[in-house]
Amino acid sequence: MSRKQPGGDDELLARLGSLTAQARERAEFQRSQVELAIALQRGMLPGDLPSAPGFDVAVQYAPACHGLNVGGDWYDAFRLSDGRIGLSIGDVQGHNTEAAAFMGQVRVGLRALASVTGDPGELLARTNDLILSLGSDLFATCTFMRLDPATGVLESARAGHIPCVWASADGKSGIAEDEGGPPLGIMAGTRYPVTRHHLTTGGVFLLLTDGVVEGPAMDVDDGLDQVVRLAGVAVGAGLSAGSLAAAVIKGAEGVGHEDDAAVLVVRHGAPTVPFR
Questions:
Q1: How far apart are alpha carbons 268 and 200 in whole angstroms?
Q2: How far apart are CA 142 and CA 107, in angstroms?
Q3: Model-level pTM?
Q4: pLDDT tens string 79-129
């Protein structure tokens, strides 16, 4: 027959209580870190998008908030000094508060350097050098486009980011074939080639982050094909940029990801079906 030590139960209960309190403190700290990162993300993303006659620009963004998976995806659209419109989208390595803060630095850096040069390739090269000068271990993928509303010409440069998707009013759609270069913050002196596209009346271009098209339930090729089909259907139905962006984010639920998901859509021509 075993004999209990005096005070043994009280000591065990005290230890369990201490462990429970520590677990509760860690959970509260983790939750506060997630809330801080989400607040950083939302505070650093633009509230308004630029407009131009004949063009419709819209965005949809779904931040990751599973556990500590708070990422560093961003989007941006702003007027350049020459009247053209700059469009950027990107993804910072990592899923924490540091990634969210670094995302803000990259986005602000792009905007600041765009006042010096609006050429997409030169802008990414300068931003790459700026990131390297910060001495951070993080890196970012990015696509930057410059839209000329007067001609519908889109000039694009890509830094390790997934390609854009397009669709035109003649029923064609596909994945943009930009050459691209390595992510920002990897290698000094990198040059990023520029590809020219023509956005015709009724057509759309979609800038995406990988959370839209890649996850445990879907590989990136299938995810991109899904967005290509959505874009083709939306253009054929005359949907607005906002409606297409919402449909793309809805479709992203099927990839099974725990990452941020962002889509930036630019459409040429007034939609026949408005966004509601």
A1: 6
A2: 10
A3: 0.81
A4: 999 999 999 999 987 766 777 778 888 988 999 999 999 999 999 999 999
> Is pLDDT at 69 greater than 80 in this prediction?
no
Q: Cα separation of 144 and 155, whole Å?
A: 8
Query: pLDDT tens for residues 41-61?
Result: 555 556 688 888 899 999 998
- Distance separating alpha carbons of residues 224 and 207, to the nearest angstrom: 11
Give, for 264, the enclosing helix (H) or strand (E). Answer: strand 261-268
Measured on CA atoms in the order 110, 47, 161, 37, is the torsion positive or negative?
Answer: positive
Q: How far is CA 13 from CA 5, 8, 9, 17, 20, in A?
A: 14, 9, 6, 6, 10
Number of helices (H), then strands (E), belonging to the chain: the values are 5, 10
Q: Mind spelling out the 3-state secondary structure of 215-258? A: ECCECHHHHHHHHHHHHHHHHHHCECHHHHHHHHHHHHHHHCCC
